[in-house]
């Protein structure tokens, strides 16, 4: 038994309240080292000799990553404070006990040697995520390239490759006109990249946070978009760029005019005066996003600056009833700011959704007092490696996802924004060498897993495009440019996802991988509903005679027993 790999902590990731009176406990062990873990617990304040409150519950191995297994147990209690310890047995039947960060050879009887869980404290720290968001489908829109209410010449709209500066004149009215299409596709949430006043097409360098960019329309157009989407049962998320601004933002403009005498000099990180914007070969003499002088970084440690941008976020929430914020470069802003931000947002609307942009594991921000979730770029990386590049095995793919499941708060997993590409990456179809069967596999992995799949506009029609900015081409509304087979595949996946809740909410009851064949076989169950999902990540055909004749829920056709290249099938195994 590897003692050094056994880990538990009395923190928000390993011991927390799921709801009032219901608590989750988690422990991490070395991969394939421990076969059984039992959670022992009792009331801290009632001596055993007066009333024996001791109970025990076998924990369940819920997931694994490349190095660790994760065991969890959920208990219902109503006491002031809980004391608990773990009983661990390895595959050689050696048993040890772990309590209060120490190992013991015999069962722990003294509460001083146990871990401690105050019920009221844990319930006060409960992670409350909007129920409406769980496992819903997000659609990302890049407004200038998605839809226009104007007549745009085809040679302009469908230009490729496309650069940073082309404004295709997409606008908010154009998005409203396409809402019925999104509703029909099965979209639940629309996420718009920045729409506020800016000189650029991407709008990530904001000049005025209180004005809609004139090329997109007006505040009334936004109001109409939100109201129309809400009437159709869809939510609207806006993009908040609070890490940096345009140099033309009023505060930075004042610094440029008045230099050291500016009242706003502490709104940014100015290293020296006079200001120097820098160039390709020289950094600016102020902090900025990615050393780019055109995006000076805000000093949100300054209370005045922090208050201004929190008020910006609250304004659009209150006045235009948006449903939440996606936060740009969010991991480069302090925890202190995000805690204040969450309190302000949730005070206005407890059901507003807060999503951070992070390209790595983001557990520190996901403990219930900052964001609700993140753009799941670790999922993106795993899908790229498994489906596009074929550089990792099926086992490694599940291990990468297992790391997230084992380390994040359980409440977060259903609201992770699972993406296969975005406005910041090359299109998946481009990275997989234009192999449409690989795109279909990636879409299946995205849409048939728990979480919130985030579809980048046009993926459902087989849009391609290289790295930024070529990934931001005009949306293919003309049938000439659409791949209807890909679109039908997306529609079918979304329908299956929505028809069978066990796909997103069910417990995994069997997991099988066959690495040489690139096979992932998952069976999920929820009540009497049971679905088997089979993902094939290789080109060579694979025989699966045990499923021959079973209807494939995605296509509606009986499975012929042979998985074709990069094929995915879903079998209703409730009666098997």
TrEMBL record:
SUPFAM superfamilies membership = (Trans)glycosidases, E set domains
Q: Which GO terms describe its biological process?
A: carbohydrate metabolic process
What InterPro entries does this protein map onto? GH (IPR017853), GH13_cat_dom (IPR006047), Glyco_hydro_13_lg-like_dom (IPR004185), Ig-like_fold (IPR013783), Ig_E-set (IPR014756), O16G_dom_2 (IPR045857)
Record keywords: Glycosidase, Hydrolase
Which SMART domains is this protein grouped with? Aamy
The source's superkingdom equals Bacteria
What GO annotations for molecular function exist for this entry?
Answer: hydrolase activity, hydrolyzing O-glycosyl compounds
- Annotated Glycosyl hydrolase family 13 catalytic domain ranges read 140-497
Family that this chain belongs to: Belongs to the glycosyl hydrolase 13 family.
- Name of the protein: Alpha amylase N-terminal ig-like domain-containing protein
Q: Which organism is it from?
A: Candidatus Fimimorpha faecalis
């Amino acid at each position: 038994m590897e003692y050094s790999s056994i880990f538990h902590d009395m923190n928000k990731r390993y011991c927390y309240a799921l709801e009032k009176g219901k608590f989750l406990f988690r422990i991490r062990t070395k991969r394939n080292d421990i076969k059984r873990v039992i959670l022992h617990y009792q009331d801290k304040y009632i001596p055993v000799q007066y009333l024996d409150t001791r109970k025990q519950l076998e924990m369940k191995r819920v997931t694994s990553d490349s190095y660790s297994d994760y065991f969890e147990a959920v208990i219902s209690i109503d006491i002031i404070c809980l004391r608990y310890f773990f009983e661990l047995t390895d595959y050689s039947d050696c048993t040890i006990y772990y309590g209060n960060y120490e190992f013991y050879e015999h069962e722990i009887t003294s509460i001083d040697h146990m871990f401690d869980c105050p019920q009221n404290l844990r319930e006060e720290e409960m992670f409350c995520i909007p129920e409406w968001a769980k496992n819903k489908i997000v659609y990302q829109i890049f407004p200038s390239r998605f839809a226009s209410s104007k007549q745009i010449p085809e040679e302009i709209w469908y230009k490729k490759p496309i650069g940073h500066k082309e404004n295709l004149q997409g606008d908010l009215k154009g998005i409203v006109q396409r809402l019925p299409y999104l509703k029909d596709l099965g979209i639940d949430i629309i996420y718009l990249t920045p729409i506020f006043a800016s000189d650029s097409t991407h709008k990530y360098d904001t000049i005025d946070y209180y004005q809609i960019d004139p090329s997109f329309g007006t505040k009334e157009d936004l109001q109409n978009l939100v109201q129309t989407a809400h009437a159709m049962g869809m939510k609207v998320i806006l993009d908040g760029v609070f890490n940096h601004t345009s140099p033309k933002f009023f505060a930075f403009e004042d610094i440029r005019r008045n230099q050291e005498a500016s009242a706003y000099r502490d709104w940014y990180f100015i290293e020296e005066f006079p200001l120097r914007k820098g160039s390709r070969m020289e950094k600016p003499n102020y902090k900025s996003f990615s050393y780019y002088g055109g995006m000076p970084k805000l000093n949100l440690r300054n209370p005045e600056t922090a208050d201004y941008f929190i008020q910006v976020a609250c304004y659009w929430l209150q006045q235009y009833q948006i449903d939440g914020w996606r936060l740009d470069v969010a991991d480069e802003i302090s925890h202190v700011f995000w805690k204040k931000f969450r309190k302000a947002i949730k005070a206005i609307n407890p059901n507003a959704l807060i999503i951070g942009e992070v390209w790595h594991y983001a557990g520190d921000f996901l403990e219930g007092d900052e964001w609700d979730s993140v753009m799941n770029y670790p999922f993106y990386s795993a899908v790229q490696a498994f489906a596009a590049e074929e550089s990792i095995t099926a086992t490694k793919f599940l291990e990468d996802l297992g790391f997230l499941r084992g380390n994040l708060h359980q409440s977060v997993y259903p609201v992770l924004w699972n993406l296969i590409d975005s406005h910041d990456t090359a299109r998946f179809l481009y990275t997989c060498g234009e192999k449409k069967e690989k795109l279909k596999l990636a879409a299946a992995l995205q849409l048939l897993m728990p979480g919130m799949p985030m579809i980048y506009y046009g993926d459902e029609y087989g849009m391609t495009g290289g790295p930024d900015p070529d990934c931001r081409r005009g949306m293919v509304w003309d049938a000439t440019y659409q791949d209807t087979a890909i679109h039908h595949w997306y529609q079918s996946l979304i329908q299956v996802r929505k028809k069978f809740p066990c796909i997103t909410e069910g417990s995994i009851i069997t997991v099988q991988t066959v690495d040489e064949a690139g096979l992932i076989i998952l069976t999920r169950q929820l009540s009497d509903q049971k679905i088997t999902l089979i993902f094939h990540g290789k080109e060579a055909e694979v025989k699966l005679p045990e499923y021959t004749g079973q209807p494939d829920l995605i296509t509606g056709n009986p499975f012929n027993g042979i998985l074709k290249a990069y094929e995915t099938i879903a079998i209703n195994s409730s009666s098997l």
